[in-house]
């Protein structure tokens, strides 16, 4: 059958075809008038052509409408079946979309939510508390911003204790075709069970590392006694020293694992105090000078003419993070190379930026995005330095984020590497509390 006729039959009963059927009566009238010789057949032909045009247009717009409604139906199905919560609201915080996953996360009915305006004042009503604290994260008991303020999509982790919930909320703006913002969409990922699992894994590592630590300390102590015993033979002393070095490396790995698992479960324990960032870095670098000398590396400090930069830090933890970066810059360097640590106050932003630059082996481009993951070591680093756990940068990132800062790196393989990290100079940017840290 002709495609045109098939379409007419397919869409005949739909509302979009009404004009075509209503105007067909005109054709009938014109046939009667022509047959009675009241008008000529010319008028009928003109009307017929016009009607065919109306019919074509009706079929076209009906088909278009059907396509649009079927794709918006598909979109609705996708949103309804998503495991993550999806909430859309306009600039007045009037909710327009609230999918079933959101209903189960926030324990409220879609019919009570859609069309309602949500303001921060509703936080006092128990029924809306969880939803309002997620829409306005600054009202939540525990918030960790994962993206910079004002940059979209915004990512934030919010945690609640009653009920126990860990949510990662991604917010983006929605604009119409002219670019005008018409509202916001939030994707809410419930991480509660992921975090529970990670916590139990991390507890397992903590217990195991603790169990290993005590006998290892005993072995180390016994080996030290043999190595320094005047009655022991030279051969035994030599062997004891070799065994002692191995035991010390093992102890360091166990300590790293212990610290990482404590950090992941939010139990590292931070003691913040006011400090001058410049003198803090100066002291840390003085402690690292002997290592730099051992490797034949020159260590420089560039203060950018700043004498005092007030910050609030945990000096032990941040000292560990800085030592990790400088240690790597020394270890993965070339003979007679250099390491420069530079501090500057960021222009127009409440942060200090610390750069650790080296003239070393560099990092291959494909390794740059894996640097801060647990146990990662690049091939060129493994061949240069066989020892290493791949835990240092993971730990360093966690410590810097706990201070409210960020860390990133760039590198030219064979030429050197720059690690950058920020520390807030506005103390309100420091997260209020240590959190479960699944990086
Ligand atoms: P480790 O040094 O024990 O291997 P880290 O977590 O400190 O572990 O570093 C992870 C990896 O990052 C290193 O193995 C190396 O591949 C790379 N890396 C870190 N710092 C540097 C650097 N300054 N120059 C080149 N590679 C680096």
Write the layout of secondary structure elements.
Blueprint: H1 3-11, H2 18-35, H3 41-81, E1 85-89, E2 95-98, H4 100-106, H5 110-113, H6 129-135, E3 142-145, E4 154-161, E5 164-175, E6 181-190, H7 192-227, H8 234-264, E7 273-276, H9 277-295, E8 298-302, E9 310-313, H10 315-331, E10 338-345, E11 351-358, H11 379-384, H12 392-402, E12 407-412, E13 416-424
Parallel strand pairs: 8-10
Antiparallel strand pairs: 1-2, 1-6, 3-4, 4-5, 5-6, 7-9, 10-11, 11-13, 12-13
Bound molecules: adenosine-5'-diphosphate (ADP).
Beta-strand segment tally: 13
What's the number of structural domains? 4
> What is the CATH homology-level superfamily of the largest domain?
Histidine kinase-like ATPase, C-terminal domain
Q: Taking Cα atoms only, what radius of gyration do you get, to the nearest Å?
A: 34 Å
CATH topology of the largest domain: Heat Shock Protein 90
Shape: elongated
Low-pLDDT residue spans: none
CATH class of the largest domain: Alpha Beta
Output mean pLDDT: 89
Which structural class fits the helix and strand makeup? alpha+beta
């Amino acid at each position: 059958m002709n495609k045109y006729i098939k379409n007419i039959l397919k869409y005949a009963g739909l509302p979009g075809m009404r004009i075509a059927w209503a105007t067909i009566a005109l054709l009938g009238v014109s046939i009667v008038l022509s047959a009675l010789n009241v008008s000529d057949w010319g008028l009928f032909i003109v009307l017929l052509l016009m009607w065919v045009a109306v019919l074509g247009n009706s079929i076209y717009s009906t088909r278009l409408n059907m396509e649009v409604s079927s794709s918006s139906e598909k979109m609705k199905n996708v949103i309804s079946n998503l495991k993550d919560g999806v909430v859309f609201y306009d600039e007045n915080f009037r909710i327009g979309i609230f999918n079933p996953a959101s209903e189960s996360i926030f324990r409220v009915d879609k019919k009570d939510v859609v069309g309602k305006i949500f303001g921060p004042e509703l936080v006092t009503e128990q029924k809306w508390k969880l939803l309002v604290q997620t829409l306005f994260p600054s009202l939540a008991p525990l918030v960790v911003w994962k993206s910079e303020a004002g940059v979209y999509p915004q990512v934030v982790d919010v945690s609640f204790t009653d009920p126990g919930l860990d949510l990662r909320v991604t917010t983006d703006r929605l604009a119409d075709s002219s670019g005008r913002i018409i509202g916001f969409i939030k994707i809410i990922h419930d991480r509660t069970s992921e975090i529970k699992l990670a916590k139990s894994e991390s507890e397992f590592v903590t217990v195991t590392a603790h169990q290993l630590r005590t006998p290892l300390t005993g072995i180390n102590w016994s080996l030290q006694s043999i190595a320094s015993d005047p009655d022991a033979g030279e051969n035994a002393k030599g062997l004891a020293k070799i065994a002692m070095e191995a035991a010390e490396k093992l102890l360091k790995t166990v300590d790293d694992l212990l610290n990482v698992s404590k950090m992941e479960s939010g139990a590292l324990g931070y003691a913040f105090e006011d400090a001058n960032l410049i003198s803090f870095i100066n002291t840390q670098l003085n402690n690292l000078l002997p290592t730099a000398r051992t490797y034949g590396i020159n260590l420089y400090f560039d203060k950018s003419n700043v004498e005092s930069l007030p910050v609030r830090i945990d000096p032990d933890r941040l000292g560990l993070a800085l030592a990790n970066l400088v240690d790597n810059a020394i270890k993965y360097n070339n003979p007679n190379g250099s390491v420069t640590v530079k501090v500057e106050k960021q222009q127009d932003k409440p942060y200090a930026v610390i750069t650790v630059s080296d003239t070393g082996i560099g990092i291959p481009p494909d390794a740059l995005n894996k640097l801060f993951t647990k146990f990662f070591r690049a091939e060129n680093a493994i061949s240069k330095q066989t020892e290493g756990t791949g835990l240092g940068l993971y730990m360093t990132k966690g410590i810097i984020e706990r201070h409210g800062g960020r860390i990133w790196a760039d590198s030219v393989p064979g030429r050197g590497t720059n690690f950058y990290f920020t520390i807030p100079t506005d103390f309100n940017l420091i997260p209020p509390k240590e959190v479960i840290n699944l990086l």
